[in-house]
Specification:
alpha+beta; about 30% helix; seven-stranded antiparallel β-sheet; single chain; about 200 residues; Pnp Oxidase, Chain A; 2 domains
């Protein structure tokens, strides 16, 4: 049976418990701020004005996303593939969802809000110690923040060393892309790719 109404959906699930509802905060508290300070990884979720969805990973040293105050986050834009999916979506809709992770910690942090792109010199100066000075920043105005329970990461055993997969179980990135788009040229090896990436981090 297709579920196409909220009423049908709620017949399958009980009402959310009080704790799950009340944990959603309108701003970053001391625990959210500390989590972000420890996080080297965040996924940015956005959509275009036409409704196309995108989820883009961003990484850096722990705390690379800076907490300016309880309602504001600054995310430096590091060099990438220049598709600019996330940045174009922000220009189009001004909305962004963030999913922070800390290695070894099963709980995660979700932050939702509005976003804008900025080249303001005083803000870029906050990232002067970075290896690569960002061209622009994503400035996020927080509207919702909440810690997410550990169940998903516990089920996946994401941080368990025994869950690590040998890279060799998949073709190299170069081989996969060559296969997907039909490039008739030698595929870049995994070692060559990592060396190229390392020079551009």
């Amino acid at each position: 049976m297709k579920i196409d109404s909220l009423e049908q959906l709620r017949t399958l699930y009980p009402t959310a418990k009080e704790r799950a509802v009340k944990k959603q905060l309108p701003a970053l508290d001391i625990h959210c701020r500390r989590y972000i300070e420890l996080s080297p990884f965040v996924v940015l979720a956005s959509s275009s004005t036409a409704g196309s969805m995108d989820a883009s990973p961003r990484g850096g040293a722990p705390g690379f996303v800076k907490v300016r105050d309880d309602k504001t986050l600054l995310i430096p834009d590091a060099p990438g593939n220049n598709r600019l999916d996330t940045l174009e979506n922000i220009v189009g809709t001004g909305k962004l969802g963030l999913f922070f992770m800390v290695p070894g910690v099963d709980e995660t942090l979700r932050v939702n809000g509005t976003a804008r792109l900025s080249t303001e010199a005083s803000l870029l100066g906050l990232f002067s110690a970075e290896k690569r000075q960002p061209r622009l920043l994503i400035e996020v105005s927080v509207s919702e923040a909440y810690l997410h329970c550990a169940k998903a990461l516990m089920r996946s055993k994401l941080w368990d060393p025994a869950s690590l997969v040998e890279r060799s179980v998949l073709p190299t990135m170069g081989q996969m892309i060559h296969s997907q788009i039909g490039i008739d040229a030698p595929a870049e090896s995994q070692e060559e790719m990592r060396a190229r990436y390392a020079a551009d981090l």
